[in-house]
């Protein structure tokens, strides 16, 4: 289970983020840390990922976030405006930069991807961020090509939908969805649905 510490500009925002993420079975939200000394507490409690909402670079939590990143903790940033304004944070160890209005499922997927050591950003910022980050590397080639329907199913998995919800969304039977999920996991070499989504992000099939 991924141990997650949430930092935010206000208690209200922090509570909202905790509410969005607390039902994800892959995540364990740590709620009793003293934000005034979050950097030290993060190291002491072996936090896996910090999810931080920042209002600006002058935010008090910015130094805490960078301290966590320097200590090897994965960091997901939720920020206002374009992520290109925060690209230098990637060079300081931050793993993910998402818009402040990202959905709970997007934040959860980004958190899991960050825990796996991946870089994550919103698709509208991806090309610019990759250029500014100094890499022109293309996504890894899939070991076996997914069908168009499998890509659709994988993207719905990334939204946090279950088989029944996916079946309803695609107007197919739940049995068909189970078949597609099994095929996706087999082609990606994934041991779980979460790993399949993570690999989908890595291969550029899924954006969040």
Quick synopsis:
The chain has ten helices and six strands; from the N terminus they run βαβαβαβαβαβααααα. It is α/β, with parallel strands linked by helices.
Shape, principal axes of CA atoms? elongated
By DSSP (H or I, 4+ residues per run), the number of helices equals: 10
Major sheet: 6 strands, parallel
Give me the strand/helix succession: EHEHEHEHEHEHHHHH
- Give the mean pLDDT: 79
CATH class of the largest domain: Alpha Beta
Q: How many whole angstroms does the radius of gyration measure?
A: 17 Å
Distance between the termini: 21 Å
CATH fold naming of the largest domain: Rossmann fold
* Percentage of residues assigned to helices: 40-55%
Q: By CATH's scheme, which homologous superfamily of the largest domain applies? A: Response regulator
Structural class: alpha/beta
Number of strands: 6
Name the poorly predicted regions: 35-39, 132-139
CATH architecture of the largest domain: 3-Layer(aba) Sandwich
> Could you say how many structural domains there are in total?
2
Strand order of the largest sheet: 2-1-3-4-5-6
Strand content: 5-15%
